[in-house]
Predict the structure of Sugar ABC transporter permease.
Amino acid sequence: MTATMAPEKDVTKAAKRAASDRAQAENRLGLKLVAPAVVLMLLVTAWPMIQALYLSLFRYRLTAPDDRAFVGIDNYLTILSDDQFWKSTLTTLLIMVVTVAVELVIGFAFAMVMHRIVFARGLMRTSILIPYGIITVVSAFAWQFAFSLNNGFVNSWFNWLPFIADDTNWFGDYPHAMFAIMVSEIWKTTPFMALLLLAGLAQVSEDMLEAAKVDGATWTQRLTKVILPNMRAAIMVAVLFRALDAYRIFDNIFVMTKGAEGTQSISFLTYRQVIEQMQLGLGSAMSVLLFLSVLLLAWLIVKLFRVDLAQARGEG
């Protein structure tokens, strides 16, 4: 009996070693395949990042290039002690949280429709994805016209709602302007969220759904116990991509309000420092802080979802 089990153990160990060697070989191949892209990305992005970090240590204005002086971290202290920076940060976070939350709900509904529909599937998917194919500046101009007090259609079409009147000025105060900006952002990028969630839906096993249905699970139970748990990795990727994109919002604000009524984001505030006021030192410091805050946001989202992407793709 012992003599029979020994060869079986050896075979098991050999199989495990072979699987481990195969996995290591695949990892090495993957590293070799992505290495050229990583090197190219570093060459393209590393120099601007290093240059921005370098300039952030100087008091440097293009209108007076000879007056450049090394100030160390004074630019960072100036920014972090400025109320305008923190107001812009709160505005940016508000836009990010609201738009991503709404897009997640609507995008999931769109993804379910695109996944389940049988008749005219191609036409339906194309129709849903059209807004994402429109340039952001063009979309912003369209929504600026829609919310215009003089010739927009929003007031006349929706004046039956209690908070909308014929003379509602959507760009006259902070709440209305923020609402208009968020609507334009949601309309433009919800299809992208739906596309990422559709990829996650495709990974949900139909056998699991059928088994749950046979066991008497309702649609809500199948959604919360089968679909959403198996889409966790896709949801994390969708939220991560859209949150980082929304956190860097610029185009909609530039076109629709130009930062008026307190609607400027961190990116728009950086633009004003660098382009309008030509403060390269201060603007570079703000861009460095923006980059660091994006890294922090990405880390928080990944930690919040606690998704093991290796197991999610079946390697666990």
Q: What stands out?
A: The CA atoms of residues 60 and 208 lie 62 Å apart. The radius of gyration is 26 Å.
